Amino acid sequence: MQYRLDNEEHFARLVLTGRFTGLDADPVRRVIADLKQGQGRHCLLDLTGLEFIDSAGIGMLLVINGEAASAGKHLAMLSGSGQVRKTVELTRIAMIIPVFETVGDYLTVQVPEAVLAAAHPCAPGEDPLAVAARALKVTAGR
Fold first, then answer.
1. Residue 123 domain-assigned?
2. How many angstroms separate the CA atoms of 49 and 100, rounded?
3. Is 95 within a domain?
4. How much is the CA Rg of the chain, to the nearest whole Å?
5. Range of the structural domain that residue 96 is part of
6. Does 133 map to a domain?
7. Are 86 and 49 in contact (CB under 8 A)?
8. How many domains are contained in the chain?
9. What is the pLDDT along the chain (142 residues), one digit of tens a residue?
10. Residue 120 phi, psi dihedral angles, 5° rounding
């Protein structure tokens, strides 16, 4: 298994590629270290690039989740396809680590501030009541 860390605007994405088996303990240690060192709270394991995952790989996903939680991180996964998707579904790992079909689905549910930032008129850190008061003044002044 290989991986890369992409720092997105509202979350860190760990893209896993290749085959994820019991032989991947060293890459998993690096994944955990990268997760713990990251600044953000939200992390997404992207399984869409995986060709294969076995039961040991599923077990290591649970270890990654536990380590992320102990570091105060929220972990979720993008479901893969083919054998990876079937294994994820059969093991019911989604009962422990939330699984999403798309990044958009993930953002909507897990990172609501990303959705709000795109649709809300407030600047980051701005008081919503101040925005509402300005809007009322503009409307009343007309």
1. no
2. 15
3. yes
4. 19
5. 2-110
6. no
7. no
8. 1
9. 999 999 988 899 999 999 999 999 999 999 999 999 888 889 999 999 999 999 999 999 999 999 999 999 999 999 889 999 999 999 999 999 999 999 988 888 876 665 555 555 566 666 667 766 766 665 554 5
10. -95, 140
